[in-house]
Amino acid sequence: AKERGRNTWHVYSQELHDELADRLDLSKKLRYAIEQNKLAVFYQPQVDMTTRKIIGLEALVRWIEDDGTIIGPDRFIPIAEDSGLILPISDFVLQTACRQLARWRDMGLNDIRVSVNLSGRQFQVPDLTDQILYAVRSAGIPTAFLELELTEQVLIENSKSHTQFMQDMRDNGITLAIDDFGVGYSSLSYLKHFPINALKIDRSFVKDLPDDKDDATITQTIVSLARNLDIGIVAEGVENQAQADFLIERGCTIGQGYFYSRPVPADEATALLTAPNSV
Ligand code: C2E
Ligand code: CA
Ligand code: CA
Ligand code: CA
User: What residue stretch is flagged as signal peptide (predicted)?
Assistant: First the structure.
């Protein structure tokens, strides 16, 4: 048994070593990709499901390799968070999204907003507020058209620094949405204390609608919670008409998901925004 334990450890240790080496390799490549401008921002529409009009777009980062291969954020955001590279990445996404919104506004698209994800690591930056305001002002867009998405986990882990930050955002007219709502930590008290503009129902609850009874109940509960608190609600991961119908019927009219559009490059997003029938 001892021998076997040792072998197990040996194998495990080798795997761990390989994994660490992979991560190190990836973080080096990522650093280089940032320097070489290989990151891009894609946009996924948030749609009024009753009219199919686009009311906003979420900015989602992508890593484009030289051969055109697209690496999704789930593969590199965790590494970026560990290595600190998330800070330049976040700044890039924020500035790119603000400038893109300015271009859309120049085209007369004056009532759409853009949403940008915030990472917990950004709360460790003392001038986060200034960084955000700088991006908004240098793009020349009104603050009210930028929305920041943060998870409950980020809020709870940074309970000290987020209070001032949230107040700063409110004072400047920037809106906040709670991402992945309903998964993990659920401390609802912040809904009362902070200027939350919207809850985004996590995709995991939407996936098996309308058939899964538990998911139907959870979704319905989140929708009525939000409505009673006068907070907006967005359903993530809407993939079909049946899900959309269920959500609309329960009072959630804004949806984001493959049923309407995948995240697309800026020029394709522009085409969607200017098409006569939207998505
Ligand atoms: P998220 O913020 O929850 O973003 C929504 C994710 O769901 C996106 O994945 C989107 O492509 C995917 N999605 C949207 N609709 C559907 C659908 O109908 N079906 C399915 N199966 N998936 C759908 P993506 O772009 O791969 O991003 C994954 C996560 O990476 C994001 O989850 C977010 O947590 C993080 N992320 C992306 N961009 C950024 C960024 O610029 N900064 C930070 N800090 N995190 C980012
Ligand atoms: Ca998000
Ligand atoms: Ca989400
Ligand atoms: Ca998610």
Answer: none
